[in-house]
Amino acid sequence: MAVREITYSQAVNEAIRLEMQRDPAVIIMGEDIAGAAGRPQFVDAWGGPFRASRGLIQEFGPTRVLDTPISEMGFTGAAVGAAMTGLRPIADIMMVDFAGVCLDQIVNQAAKMRYMTGGQTAMPLVIRAAIGTRSSPGQLRGGGSAAQHSQVLYSLFVHIPGLKCVAPSTPYNAKGLTIAAIRDDDPVIIFDHKFLMGVRGPVPEEDYTVPLGWSEVKKEGRDVTLIGISRMVHVCMEAAHDLAGLGLDAEVIDLLSLAPLDEETILESVRKTKRLVIVDESNPRCSVARDIAALVADKGFDYLDAPIKTVTAPHTPVPFSAVLEDAYVPDAAKVVGAVKAMLGLEDE
Question: What is the pLDDT of residues 213-269, one digit of tens each?
């Protein structure tokens, strides 16, 4: 495969373009995914807030790239109906924060249709939703998107039977997971982190898939397991580097798929390292971090030599202030602190 370095956003764009070329049933709809709401002098003016759909309308036209009104309830419902009639729609709701206005369409329709029809109705629907802040922990580069545009709400959807949920961390797995999601016959929500959209990495030009339900061991280690989700994988890798300076060898797992969950990889890692820290940018109560902790406490308790630790955002809305936003997001220092506390090491 020919490989070159592109951004996360470009990798998503490429995945959608390849699938639209391969399968005429694939369509995409959402607010400003092309721009101009049909006015020809401004077509393709935007390509979505992160340029992930830039250029698609030029290639596939307005019948397959649908710039919608500001009505998530309407176009998500339309996407659910389209999936029931043989199309493979992608609904881009911009920020996950906006999912509240189309929750019925996702939770009561898309998630349950296959079950309620005894498997007779497929639901090949992809929903794209951006998560997280745009700040860079420790650098006070606050994104300033505040409480209604910065949330990490994947835990809400992981709770719902019938939904598959993935959270890419690199351009490579963003492309592979997006292609896998489009080809899947169940509804899949892709949670793309805003901060990662401009991150560059090696991506093959050809199409490929990253399996849903799979996680990746990013770094092998023997002393403690660090599990990260999306952007927090990079925080875990930074923390692993810092822990190496203390003589500790951390294993890092990139969760990738939140539902279905790769329990085997998690438990096998904890069996080896005997210690677990889960790093999750979402709020702590009823979170994916706490769910994994419960899983390991239930199925891997005998492996543990220390209590499980979670490093999460606080149980508060995302602040607007850059200083407070910087303190809000988990960073490597907090992960290192959790490991040191687990091992009874004093802060120096």
Answer: 999 999 999 999 999 999 999 999 999 999 999 999 999 999 999 999 999 999 999
Question: What would you report as the CA-atom Rg of the chain, rounded to the nearest whole angstrom?
Answer: 20
Residue type at 238 in one-letter notation: E
* Residues across the chain: 348
Cis peptide leading into 330, omega within 30 of 0?
Answer: no
Q: Across 18-62, where does the E strand assignment appear?
A: 26-30
Identify the sign of the CA torsion 246, 248, 254, 255.
negative
Known catalytic residue at 149 = yes
Buried b (16+ CB within 10 A) or exposed e, 160-186: bebbbbbbbbbbbbbbbbbbbbbbbeb
**pLDDT of res. 324:** 86
From 14, 19, 31, 72, active-site residue: 72
Domain assignment of residue 348, yes or no:
no
Catalytic-role residue among 14, 149, 193, 238: 149
**Structural domains in the chain (count):** 2
Asked whether 124 and 294 are in contact (CB, 8 A), the reply is no
14 in any annotated domain = yes
Instruction: Report how far residue 84's alpha carbon sits from residue 71's, in angstroms, rounded to the nearest whole number.
Output: 20
Contact 201, 38 (CB under 8 A): no
- Could you give the 3-state DSSP secondary structure of residue 85? coil
Which residue among 204, 230, 250 closes a domain? Answer: 204
Range of the structural domain that residue 198 is part of = 3-204
